[in-house]
Amino acid sequence: MNPTAPDLNIPASDEREKLLERAMARHHNSGDALIEILHTAQQLYGYLSRPLLSKMARRLNLPPSHVLGVATFYHLFRFEPPKKHSAIVCLGTACYASGAGQLLAAAQQSASEGEWTLTTGRCVGSCGLAPIAICDGIPLARVKPGDLAAVLGGKHDG
Amino acid sequence: MTADGLRQSREAELDRQSRLKNRIACCSVAGCLAGGGDAVRAALAEEVKAQGASAEIEVCGTGCMGLCSRGPLVRSSAGEITYAEVKPGDAAAVVRSDLDSLNGRILRQSDPFFAGQRRLILANSGKVDPEKIAGYIAQGGYQSLLRATSEMTPEEIVAEVKKSKLRGRGGAGYPAGLKWELVARHPSATKYVICNADEGDPGAFMNRSVLEGDPHRVLEGMAIAGRAVGAQQGYIYARGESPLAIERIRTAIDQAQREGLLGGRVFDSDFHFRIDLRIGAGAYVCGEETALIASIEGKRGQPVLRPPYPPESGLWGHPTLINNVETFANIPQIIENGGDWFAGIGAPASPGTKIFAVAGRIRNSGLVEVPIGTSLRTILFEIGGGVPEGYEFKAAQTGGPAGGCIPAQYLDVPMDYDSLTGIGTMMGSGGLIVMDTSSCMVDVARFFMEFCMDESCGKCIPCRAGTVQMNEILGRMTSGEGKEADFAMLEALSGLLVEASLCGLGRAAPNPVLSTLRHFRSEYDAHVRERRCPAGSCRMGASA
Amino acid sequence: MSRRIVIEPVTRLEGHAKITVQLDDAGQVRSARFHVTEFRGFEKICEGRPFHEMPGLMSRICGICPVSHVLASSKAGDMLLGVEIPPAATKQRRLVNYAQVLQSHALSFFHLSSPDLLLGMDSPPEKRNIFGLMEQDREFLRSGIRLRQFGQQIIELVGGKRIHPGWSGPGGVHERFTTRQRDEIVKWIPESIESIGIALDRLKSVLDSFREEVAHMGNFPSLFLATVNEEGGLEYYDGVIRITDGSGNTIAEALDPHRFYTYLGEASESYSFMKFPFYQPFGYPQGHYRVGPLARLNVAKFAGTYHADREMREFKQRGEGAVCQSFHFHLARLIEMLHCTERIEELMEDPELFEEAIQAKASLNRREGVGSCEAPRGTLFHRYWVDKDGLMTKADLLIATAQNNQAMNLSVEQTARRFLDAEPDQGMLNRLEAAIRCYDPCLSCSTHALGRMPLVVDVTGPAGEPVRQIRRET
Amino acid sequence: MSVRTLEVDGRTITAMADQTIFSAAWDNGIRIPRLCHLGGLPDAAACRLCLVEIEGQKRLQSACTTKVAEDMVVRTDTPALQAHRKLIIELLFAERNHVCSVCVVNGACELQTLAAELGVDHIRMKPQYPKLPVDVSHHRFGIDHNRCILCTRCVRVCDSVEGAHTWDVAGRGRNSLIISDLGEPWGESASCTSCGKCVQVCPTGALFSKGKTVAEMRKDRSFLQYIVTAREKRLWIAERKPR
Fold it and tell me: What ipTM does this complex have?
């Protein structure tokens, strides 16, 4: 263990920490399970902070650079706290062919200052409903740029 | 579970079902759920309750029935009727089988969309609830695993799969039997079976629908494979972007383990087989088998040089059998009906059926399962209903970012592995996107190139930097800034990527460009020499 | 009728520029301007780079005087490290700086200016170049080429490469000076001193025929700025700044070059990318000053070497307190060459030059560093700011040619007034160029510019409308 | 160890059975270009410069990872291979910011040398010039990502020879970046032993010793051979060439 590594600021009583510890224990603190544990950590904390990554590196006996290298390789991992709402615009082929490009442009414009984290997906698997956007888990099928912009720009609260 | 237990379980469920007056199965995979399927199902359940018919009418979920563009779909066992575009308000009419008020949204089995298909892998769709193992068992599920563990030797299983001439459904079409044999013959004591469920092609959702709709079929196929090659551990590597599929697999594994169909001493044999789920985290390249293995090992999903191939040295250096979802889903029926039966379906060189995810400018978009070798015309114009009025067919894109475009003159080409390769595209995992004359083919190539650029793992230079430059050139062309010299550079870079890339992603990345250059060269010329987009839909076309 | 004449670019300069002569209705010169229309943005390139790379990077500013930039940059680096470098390193840097002045002056005088001086301003342009001179006086030109070679030889011997030496950096230099190198160098010295003497005699003998040019091509009182040593003698590497005026009076003494920005300001004009530096207490434009060979000989009280001192005494006789004619830059240049050669000879005998310690090791100790030295064209200042890791956050370069900017403009105007006839002819055009060429401006570094300007002469009417255009292909 | 006989570029050569084509060719004076391979490090087969044609094989194979075989016929320098290599070098130059004239290893850079050998005197594609950081927080060394070609030699030497695993690659594709520890400045890395091996194996000026100016940096890899040989043959005193 590295004595000079930054200390963790998460209180020991934190329930999430216990859950994470348990997840790591379930995988016998094996480095092979890194991606699984990153998933768990992100679910618990919303994103992967540096102290969190450092903690996992120590517990799983992995070099920190390896942990960050793996985490940043995959697009689903976040390193910043997510905003209040999240929207995914699908850019799969079918959606693209149905005008997802314009959809994304409209969404980007209205999401830039709002409370929405806007990401793009490569096919959410609902090609029959193209173009599709998913706002806070709710799919908007055959959505028009204006409607999506209204959702992202408005005081949508759900 | 014992053989008797399986039989009893099956009979009990069949008996229960036979006493029902009607089973109303609501499509409960991503496509229909996105269209409001959950609310429909809730409304139906409410309606049944309100009518006091809970004892005789069951409302359940089921796998993908195919016609996603007209979802949510609901299927009624009474009269074998499928209702399309069902809204919660239709609940009463559906429960009462009030056909008049559902007029125009009634699909019978004779509808060309259903009649033209041969559903083997998707056989349970509309019948089995993916969240309940009993339904799968009732349809004869796990019988093949029973056979494989109690009546067949591993060698016999491999022989049967070889006899079936099943080819891997992941895209390359490598004969599954040969792969199984390689792993089976390896003397290593530790071996693994991996199910590649990292279906990442944009526009492809076959595997996902199979996992969401009939997960046990895949588990059974994997277990049979484990028995055949001598592995005791299997992994399903699923896309992190498909939460529903992940949930369904998890449930299914739990159920199978609880029933003793997975785990130690399956059917009281000496066969032990566990399956664990591994979840990807958003990396297309992990569909490549060595990258997938790296990812399961907790590493960056970067491909490593082959050989050695996974059957020799795969997961943690042990012999590993990797097949994709659809391949494994084929296994139970091959064991059940025999390899010869399977070999008799579809094209002689590539037998069986194939699921295509048909989307884009087409009337009936969704999942279509047909015998391999069915012509594109049949799939698109008979089953798919053709392009909607006012549009004209231009090309179909197969094989995702690694594939190519099929122009109208090849509509009669049989959809099998070798024929598609012959016209410069590939079967791929089964995505089939229909484009009409308003699609700019240069922009289509650019779209796929951008995809490959974003998804390149960055390990080898040709793919990492070559995709950037190809994207740059295609971007230039679609903005009206293309140069004559760009053609030569595109070709040179394509050649480099095809020949020098480390893995399949890089080698296949130029395919959409090469294929569109081959079939739609005049469109490129118009962009570069005349500074116009004939389809009028790329960046240049839009601004003009 | 008011006309505007534009000449661009001025040929036989290291860089490109253009001249506009504005005429009034009477056909007289209203004003004349020397435009610098290129922009190179070297300061921008430096940002974010480690300061250790600066000497190498800065040497790329200019292919003519890379050494000057390397030295100023190295000295700024020394200051960032907070070290005094070993004597051997200082002496090596001095040696190379002398060599640099020698080769640059040789290029300016023999290759660029001597065709005008020896063939006459009105000789046909196709003859009035180095090839024309070659036909007339092969031996003379050869001696000039050899002199430049001598300077370059030293730079190559010590710095490794002739054009872009990276031998010096923050803290000192990177290779020891050897007796073998000395032996190579001393061979050249007698010949050099003789050649420079001959050139001096040649120049002095033709000066009478340039009476008009001497009097009207940049003859005006101004301030002069240069580095001098503690005794007030000629100094090129390390000293204090002294400023004198057109009558030889001392305006400022013993100014710290590391604080140049406290007494030198920079003004800008819309017509030029090049800044107009001025002496702050006098304001702009009154505070404009000249730097370079002429300024150095005016500011310094003596040279400190035998031959140069003799020539310098004679030189100072040409003015009253100060030599104000920019035409005498040429003469000053030759005297400096003589001085540099003598200094090189002295250094060859200096045991400290051969000492083992050549590098002061230290890590970053300051966040701001200034380095200055006398470049062939005048005083050069580099000022750097770095972050805590030593990455450059900002660079500010004050370059010799820029400091002569105002003087060049005045010279152009004066020349135009005197030599402009009713129609622009080649002799006039050439004199305008020659006026600029006195300063041997290195425009590429003073504007840090990149690119080429077409050669165009524009004549415009009262409202600025073009009357005619003269093109001259380079 | 048994011996194999094979043909490389028309010459018949012999090699140990466990030798790669690359090292067998090298032993016989046939130099195959490469940037990611370095004797003594595990191979990545990533730069694709050492690809060779092997008779009877459809695909080009990387010489650094392909073992020799009896009667193998290898061609290392066909026009097609040369064209690929030139293009790879061009791609590298266009990918980041490789301006030799202001680089610390100018004149001693493997990328530059290869470009010269292959006759790459200009690039025909659009330079990307991403604005990447320079990290000089380490007291002895610096890393300039603009000059990094992502060969991962540093990552490999740090992991397999030094054993510190300070370096790794973060991100992917064109956004790949070499990182130390959790992406903190190198100087704050707790795992770095400051051994400098990464600096010495770096083929370009991406990793450099601080205090070096343009064209001054020279890389010394003798330590690698020494460590590897010493481990294998227990030769603890390195043979050093007299300076």
Answer: 0.85
Q: List the CATH number of the domain containing B290.
A: 3.40.50.11540
The CATH-assigned architecture of domain D3-77 is Roll (3.10)
Residue B131, in any domain of the structure: no
What residue type is D175 in one-letter code? N
Tell me what the mean pLDDT of segment D224-238 comes to. Answer: 70
| Domains, chain A, with CATH or none | 15-73 (1.10.10), 85-153 (3.40.30.10)
pLDDT at D237: 63
Per-residue pLDDT, C165: 56
pLDDT at C146: 95
For B102, the domain range is 8-115
How far does the CA of residue A106 sit from the closest CA of chain B (Å)?
Answer: 15
Domain extents in chain D: 3-77, 119-233
pLDDT at C450: 27
Question: Closest Cα partner for C304 from C347, C266, C262?
Answer: C347
Q: Hey, are the CB atoms on B455 and D173 less than 8 Å from each other?
A: yes
Tell me if chain A has a CB within 8 Å of the CB of D168: yes
User: Are B181 and B292 members of one domain?
Assistant: yes
State the CB neighbour count (10 A cutoff) for residue B536.
13
Q: Which amino acid is at B179?
A: K
Residue B206 has pLDDT above 70, yes or no: yes
**Digit-coded pLDDT (tens) for D131-189:** 899 999 998 999 999 999 999 999 999 999 999 999 999 999 999 999 999 999 999 99
Contacts of A55 in chain D (CB under 8 A): none
What sign does the CA torsion over D168, D170, D176, D178 have? Answer: negative
Chains A & D: contacts with CB separation below 8 Å: 48
Residue of D nearest to B453 (CA): D173
C450 touching D, CB under 8 A? no
Structure tokens at A123: 């096919």
Structural domain contains residue B127 = no
CATH number of the domain residue B419 falls in: 3.10.20.600
* One domain for residues B192 and B288: yes
- Residues B147 and B208 occupy one common structural domain: yes
Q: Which of B305, B466, B493 sits opposite D62 (nearest CB)?
A: B305
Average pLDDT over residues A17-44: 92
- D134 lies within 8 A of chain C by CB: yes
